[in-house]
Every structure is written in C-alpha cells, then in structure tokens.
Design goal:
Layout (H helix, E strand, L loop, with lengths): L11 E6 L10 H10 L23 E3 L5 E3 L17 E6 L5 E2 H22 L5 E4 H4 L10 H6 L9 E2 L6
Parallel strand pairs: 1-4, 1-6, 2-4, 5-7
Antiparallel strand pairs: 2-3
Length: 169
C-alpha cells in the first residue's frame, strides 16, 4: 500500500511501459485492474478525492496511445512501480511495449519537462534524474527503449520506437 510522503522526497522520474501489444488501446482502468490482481493497493486516506475509482494503480501517470495523460496515484503517495525506489520517484507508464505513437512521445516529453519545471519553480526542488525501469532493475527490459539515450537525443525517440497507426483500424 502506498504511504504519504513529502514532495521534497521526490528526486527522480521512472518511465515504464505497460508491456501490452504496441498500438492496443489499453487504458489506466485496465492497468488498475491488472495491479489489483497483483495485490497493489492505494491508501485512500492520502487523497480521498484523487481518482477514487483507481484503487490499485501503481503509477502516478499513464500515457495512453492517443496521447492522453491520465493521473493515477497522487504524487504525495508513494508509487508501486519499481522495487526499492518508490519512496523517492514518480512513475510514468506508456501504454505499449517498445513502440509508442508520436502523440505519446510528445506527451511524455511535455510531462517530464512539466514535472521538472514545477519542481523547480513552485517547490525549489530538483528532479535529479529520469530513468527507465530497466536502469534500476537489471531483470527488466521496460520501457522498451533507452531513456538516457532518449533524453540525450533531445527527447527524440529513435525511428524504430515510433508507432505509426495510420491505415490501422
């Protein structure tokens, strides 16, 4: 179960993938169901009005294939997304596995930059790093791309990680 934390404890962002087929339009509600099956549980007393229908999701944000950024856990609640690193991180999950739509990439960049900007401007804090789940757990391949490379490349994904849905039903 998530626990309350001060925002000053947050110093990193961890990017994940939902490990779903690329292009399948899963939602944050689907992820909430999957996390319920795995035994994850939010603490509703931390923010009772924050997404009360999402009682299990371990991520703070989910980016769906249409680019919609959906709020999961409140940022004051520890996530359930990367063992040993939940106390000081925010978790962002992209729906897909290793290819994401351009609007997902755009939303991810905007969200990461917004979190960094808000941390500095409103709280005087610095988000020290942004990682992929696999950077913190050698047994993971999530999020299906190299986050450090993505950042070093000016937040531009490599072509093989861009999903083109044109012409698909």
């Amino acid at each position: 179960m998530g626990v309350y934390r001060e925002l000053s404890q947050i110093d990193s962002i961890v990017i994940h993938c939902a490990d779903t087929p690329n292009g399948r339009a899963n939602t944050i509600e689907d992820i909430d169901d999957w996390h319920a099956q795995r035994g994850f549980r939010r603490d509703p007393s931390i923010a009772p009005k924050h997404q009360p229908h999402l009682r299990h999701v371990g991520y703070h944000y989910v980016i769906e294939i249409d680019g919609a950024v959906r709020a999961g856990r409140p940022v004051h609640e520890t996530g359930a997304h990367v063992a040993g690193h939940n106390d000081n991180t925010l978790g962002i999950c992209l729906v897909g596995q290793d290819q994401f739509t351009q609007v997902q990439w755009d939303a991810l960049r905007t969200l990461v930059e917004s979190i960094q900007s808000i941390a500095i401007q409103r709280m005087g804090l610095t988000i020290e790093a942004t990682f992929g789940h696999r950077d913190l757990d050698d047994n993971k391949i999530c999020p299906g791309f190299d986050v450090i490379e993505w950042i070093s490349n000016g937040y531009q994904p490599l072509d093989q990680h861009i999903l083109d849905l044109e012409g698909q039903p």
